[in-house]
Amino acid sequence: MKKLLVASTSTIYGSGYLEYLLPTLKSFFVDVKTILFIPYARPSGISYDEYTKIAKNAFSNINIDVVGIHQFENPKEAILKAEAIFTGGGNTFELVNQLYKKHILSTLKKVLENGTPYLGTSAGSNICGVNMMNTNDMPIVYPPSFTTLGCIPFNINAHYLDPIVGSTHKGETRETRIKEFHVFNGIDVLGLREGSWLEVIGDEIILKGDLTARLFQQNKKPIELESGVKV
């Protein structure tokens, strides 16, 4: 049975890395001693080791150790043996590119479908959807496919931003870009605002956090979903 936390972001304003999620993570990863961290989306300018250290420091607050997948000679075996898995944010194109390059996307999907607890933030949440086509990231690399894990039956737009009232900016809003996606694709898209996350237990998906989320469906008006409702 799937057990996932799909979060818009790792860090909210005025808070440390994963700090706002720690109470939830403590209960979600109960009895987990070590989490396997996938740092492939790494933010620019830092190494896999440095990124893993950031995650390790955060989880030390709830007495959980973290080890990076890049430290293993066989990443597929590391996934299969993992107690729990965390994929951090960064660039979704590079994350998906590495998952395909190392031939571990299908392995990751398999263990998550079988119940290995999983946390995704930002790019790590984008890959939980049907495909990665609603990422906000620039295509700095070209992965073999945009198809991702499909652990949830829709796509995620992480860090979703509403139009700023009174703004003179004439570029596309997030809503406009998602409508452009729906010209050619029928997949639903959930705009997850900062500080919101999805709790996925089996086939039940519940919106968590203090904010609403915006659900976009092809040829329909967007719907605001209240925290606590099933998606």
TrEMBL record:
In its UniProt record, a GO molecular function of this protein is: serine-type peptidase activity
Q: Which Pfam families match?
A: Peptidase_S51 (PF03575)
Q: Which organism is it from?
A: Polaribacter vadi
Query: What are the alphabetically sorted keywords of the record?
Result: Hydrolase, Protease, Serine protease
GO BP annotations, alphabetical order:
proteolysis
Q: Which domain of life is it from?
A: Bacteria
Q: Which residues cross the membrane?
A: none
Sequence similarity:
Belongs to the peptidase S51 family.
Protein name as it appears in the record: (Alpha)-aspartyl dipeptidase
